[in-house]
C-alpha cells in the first residue's frame, strides 16, 4: 500500500474520533507551548537584565567597600573607601577615563506641603559622564559647588514631577534633612535599575553631602558609599580592574584579604546569564515532562485503537495487506497526532511569548531553536511511542483477528 493511501486512511480514522484525538494531543500541546514559552521568557529576562546593566553607563566599574566575604557576613558595610581613594584612582590609573565618588543616603525631602522619602546622592561633576545621565533643564553640579560646599541640588525627573506639580523647579528651594537647597537642574528620564527608580533621586555636591547632610568622617577622610569608574574603552576594563586593585592594596596597606570589591558590568552580566540559563533549562525540563506524558497518552490510545480495530486489521491482512502496511498505518496515525499537537502547541507558545512581551518589561522573544527542538521532540515522541502499538497491530494473526470480531 502506498504511503499516501495510508495517510488518507489515518486522517479519516482520526477525524472520526475528533474528541479522543484532541484529548490525546493535549499533553503534546501543553508540553510544546510550555517549552517555547519558558525558553522565550528566560531569554527575555536575560536581555532585560543586560539592558538594565548597560543603563549604568558604558565600560563602568564599581568599587565598593568590604571584601565579598565581609559583604556576605554583615549588612553594615565597612567604611573602607574614602574620597582620597577616588582622587588617587583618577590621577594614577592610566586606563581610567572618569571617576565619580558617591555618598548615598535615604532622606526626607520637602517642598511647601509636599514631602517624600528619596535617595540623596552626593557626587561630583563627572557623574554625568560615568553613569550616562543627561541634564534636561538647568545645569549639573560644578567644581565651584564642590569647593564652596554650595547647597544646590539637581533632581531626577520623577522627583521633580512629584515635588513640583506643573511648576518649573529651577530656582526654587527644597529642604533635605531640614537644610535648604536651591534646585539648579533636572535630569532627563533614566528609568529603573533592577526595580530601583533612578529618577527619584536628588544629587548634591559630595562635599556638601559629607559635611552638612551625612556628617560622618573616618580617620582617613570622607567615607564613600562606592566609587563609579569609567574605563577608557571596553578593552581597558580588565586592565583598569587590575591597576585599581594594586593601587588600593598599596594605599590601604593590605597584606591578606582586600577590604574592597571591584565589580564590572561584564562579570555581573555573566552571573545573570548563568542564573538565567540554569533557570530556563530547569523550567524547560519541567515543561518537557508533559511531552513525555503526552507521548505515553498517544501510546495508550493507540493500543486501545488496535484492540478496537482488530476486525479491520484482520480483514485488511486477509485481502493482501502486509505487516509493513499495517505497521505504517498505525505509525502514521501516531505521528499525525504528535506533529499536529506540536504545531498547535507551538502556536500557543509563540502567542504566550508575544503576550508576555507586550504586557511586561521583559523583552521576550521567540527562539527558533526552541521551536525546532519542541516540534522535533514531539514528532520523535510520536514516532517512539507509536512503535509498540503499531508492531502489535502488524503482528496480529488475520485468522485470529477475524474470529475475535
TrEMBL record:
Q: Which GO terms describe its cellular component?
A: plasma membrane
Q: Where is the ABC3 transporter permease C-terminal domain?
A: 285-398
Transmembrane helix as a keyword of this entry, yes or no, is yes
Q: Where in the cell is it found?
A: Cell membrane
Which parts of the chain span the membrane according to its record?
A: 281-306, 326-359, 365-388
The answer to whether the entry has keyword Transmembrane is: yes
Q: Which GO terms describe its molecular function?
A: transmembrane transporter activity
Q: What membrane topology is annotated for this entry?
A: Multi-pass membrane protein
Query: Which top-rank group of organisms is this from?
Result: Bacteria
Task: List each copy of the MacB-like periplasmic core domain by range.
Answer: 21-246
The alphabetized UniProt keywords are: Cell membrane, Membrane, Transmembrane, Transmembrane helix
Task: Output the InterPro entries linked to this UniProt entry.
Answer: ABC3_permease_C, MacB_PCD, Macrolide_Exporter_MacB
The record ties this protein, via Pfam families, to: FtsX, MacB_PCD
Family classification: Belongs to the ABC-4 integral membrane protein family.
Q: What is the name of the protein in this document?
A: ABC transporter permease
Per the UniProt record, the lineage of the source organism begins with: Bacteria, Bacillati, Cyanobacteriota, Cyanophyceae, Acaryochloridales
Amino acid at each position: 500500500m502506498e504511503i499516501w493511501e495510508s495517510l488518507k486512511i489515518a486522517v479519516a480514522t482520526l477525524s472520526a474520533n475528533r474528541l479522543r484525538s484532541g484529548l490525546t494531543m493535549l499533553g503534546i500541546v501543553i508540553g510544546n507551548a510550555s517549552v517555547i514559552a519558558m525558553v522565550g521568557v528566560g531569554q527575555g529576562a536575560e536581555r532585560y537584565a543586560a539592558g538594565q546593566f548597560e543603563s549604568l553607563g558604558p565600560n563602568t566599574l564599581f568599587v565598593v567597600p568590604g571584601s565579598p566575604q565581609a559583604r556576605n557576613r554583615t549588612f553594615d558595610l565597612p567604611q573602607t573607601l574614602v574620597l582620597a581613594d577616588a582622587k588617587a584612582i583618577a590621577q594614577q590609573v592610566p586606563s581610567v577615563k572618569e571617576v565619580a565618588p558617591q555618598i548615598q543616603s535615604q532622606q526626607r525631602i520637602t517642598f511647601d506641603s509636599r514631602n517624600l522619602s528619596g535617595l540623596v546622592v552626593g557626587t561630583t561633576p563627572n557623574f554625568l559622564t560615568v553613569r550616562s545621565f543627561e541634564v534636561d533643564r538647568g545645569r549639573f553640579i560644578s567644581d565651584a559647588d564642590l569647593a564652596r560646599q554650595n547647597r544646590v541640588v539637581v533632581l531626577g525627573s520623577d522627583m521633580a514631577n512629584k515635588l513640583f506639580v506643573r511648576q518649573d523647579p529651577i530656582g526654587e528651594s527644597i529642604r533635605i534633612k531640614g537644610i535648604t537647597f536651591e534646585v539648579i537642574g533636572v535630569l532627563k528620564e533614566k528609568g529603573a535599575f533592577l526595580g530601583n527608580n533612578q529618577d527619584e533621586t536628588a544629587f548634591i555636591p559630595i562635599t556638601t553631602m559629607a559635611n552638612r547632610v551625612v556628617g560622618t568622617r573616618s580617620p582617613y577622610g570622607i567615607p564613600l558609599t562606592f566609587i563609579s569608574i569609567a574605563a577608557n574603552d571596553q578593552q581597558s576594563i580588565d586592565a583598569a580592574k587590575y591597576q585599581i586593585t594594586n593601587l588600593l592594596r598599596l594605599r590601604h596597606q593590605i597584606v591578606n584579604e582586600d577590604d574592597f570589591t571591584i565589580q564590572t558590568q561584564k562579570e555581573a552580566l555573566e552571573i545573570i546569564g548563568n542564573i538565567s540559563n540554569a533557570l530556563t533549562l530547569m523550567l524547560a525540563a519541567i515543561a518537557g515532562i508533559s511531552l513525555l506524558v503526552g507521548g505515553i497518552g498517544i501510546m495508550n490510545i493507540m493500543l486501545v485503537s488496535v484492540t478496537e480495530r482488530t476486525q479491520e486489521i484482520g480483514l485488511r491482512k486477509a485481502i493482501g495487506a502486509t505487516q509493513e502496511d499495517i505497521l505504517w498505518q498505525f505509525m502514521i496515525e501516531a505521528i499525525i497526532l504528535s506533529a499536529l499537537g506540536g504545531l498547535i502547541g507551538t502556536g500557543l507558545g509563540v502567542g504566550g511569548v508575544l503576550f508576555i512581551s507586550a504586557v511586561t518589561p521583559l523583552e521576550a522573544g521567540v527562539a527558533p531553536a526552541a521551536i525546532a527542538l519542541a516540534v522535533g521532540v514531539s514528532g520523535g515522541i510520536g514516532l517512539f511511542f507509536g512503535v509498540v502499538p503499531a508492531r502489535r497491530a502488524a503482528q496480529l494473526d488475520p485468522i485470529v483477528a477475524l474470529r475475535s470480531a
